[in-house]
Fold these 2 entries.
Entry 1:
Amino acid sequence: MKKGHVYLIGAGPGDPGLITVRGRECISFADVVVYDYLANEQLLESAPSRAELIYAGKIGGAHNHEQWQINSLLVDKALEGKIVARLKGGDPFIFGRGGEECEALAAAGISFEIVPGVTAGIGAAAYAGIPLTHRNVTTSVAFVTGHEHQEKDDTEIDWERLSLGSGTIVFYMGIKNLPQITRSLIDHGRSPDTPVALVRWGTRPEQQILEGTLANIAEKARKALFKAPAITIVGEVVSLREKLRWFDIRPLFGKGILVTRAADQAGEFSRLLSEKGASVFECPTISLVPPESSAELDRAILELSSFDWLVFTSANAVGFFFSRIETVGLDARALAGCRVCAVGPKTAASLLPYGIRPDLIPADYKAEGVVAEFGRMEMKGKRVLFPKADKARDLIPKALGEMGAEVTAPVAYRNVIPDRVPERAMLALEEQRIHCITFTSSSTVENLAAILGENRMIRLLEGVVVAAIGPVTANTCRELGLKVDIEPKEYTLEKMTDAISDFFNLP
């Protein structure tokens, strides 16, 4: 059997956006992904669905796998002919024991590739607003392990040279030994007044920073119960943080926000919230699938030339509609004689890839806005095609019918309720790490209640800020016993994000 290949990939310090393009690419075609405690689990989403995922991390010295077992695992999987992605926090060759793993692979005659990553000392310092070098402060930096091999009798750290010869010193894995580290630096000549910063969970939304001096940081850490994983930065550059901090002053920093949109739609909203510093938990309460039968929609598509108006109330409707257009062998030219109404800028934008610019975008981004706009026109005898969700309100077809229009409203897609809440989101709810929950349609509220049960939902959301994108969704929240705290005046994800940010930053 042909031997496989192993990629040792630096996953970066925590923010999944910090992995390299090459690193993500290697994960995408792996047969096996072996990942560490410090590798963000969101990166596993890049792996193929067929890939075997193996956790091989350790927490505070408690090993899920010993190093020799990890080495053997990589060798064994490669000998099976597998492509293995070894995902390591930070950089594989900086206190990551990547060298040991490569030695084992080389001894077994297995080919490998090293994909460098952003090491914690650099990434966490940058996200803390601490430049490790600065020409007006220091031009040197040293990276040192704060946790030497337990079998060593003597330290290999030259404390005198480190104390007096280095500008900035970055200690990895040194929280447990912080009293000894600070004492050694002071004893070998470093000023007790030297600024120090501890950065825990650097680059992640839960990042924590504790500042002090060599003289007091160990006691401060003890009183604050400051735990690993963290790095220790020693040097005058720490004093620049007051001016240069950027990550932990964003408006939603430290806030846990639950996004209940469908899995294939949550990304944009999650990105908007993350950019403002939120810790986002995705909890899809909707799964969008085609109707059980598309016969009615297909008939309408084949008769498009006979319709005067085509009304889309969501980007979902656009996507499913054009999927059927393609299935029946047509393209956007079939809309040539039909005017198009799109509810909201997002729906309008979703039409552009198909070469369609809507003729009408109601000022009010909901069904009532559509009715109001058509109420200003002569609709008697007009034919209107309204591809809809299976649970869509009947306001548009009913109101247009009363105006004399002939409305055809085939189901373009269905909202299906997922079986359960994702484990990560459920744990965050139970541990009260969610500060705000967002609902972007009535279905998201109703479905969450169906998954959890109304009473359990209300209990879990006690004290959680509820944000609803518009009045219809807000009313559904209230009907299910929830108090709505945030309701943007414009019904877009951008305005929803701004409203959440404003709420948490009121004076």
Entry 2:
Amino acid sequence: MVPALISAKPQGRRPAKTSRIELRATEHDRDLLDQAAAALGTDRSSFLLAQGRLAAQRVLADRERFVLDADAQQEWERINSRPARRLPGLTRLRERPSPFVTPAADQPEG
């Protein structure tokens, strides 16, 4: 059984797979991918899709410039115009003394 924490499978109802992706690889690479898939209890296709999806999300998350069409721009503005939520835990965290600042009484006199 593979723990859910390391699963890269999307949750919920999955859409039908209607597109085919072909990939050429060496036998060594294919065997390596098969071993990794087996270690997670899945097949090569599911492994490659899950890991490829994660890699794609990381690449896109690191972008600094985003181009949005008119509808996406409107949705972005709608989301960002909402008032900020109050998060009591965050408020408590910000009110705590910083562990990186030495209190004045503990500082050596110079």
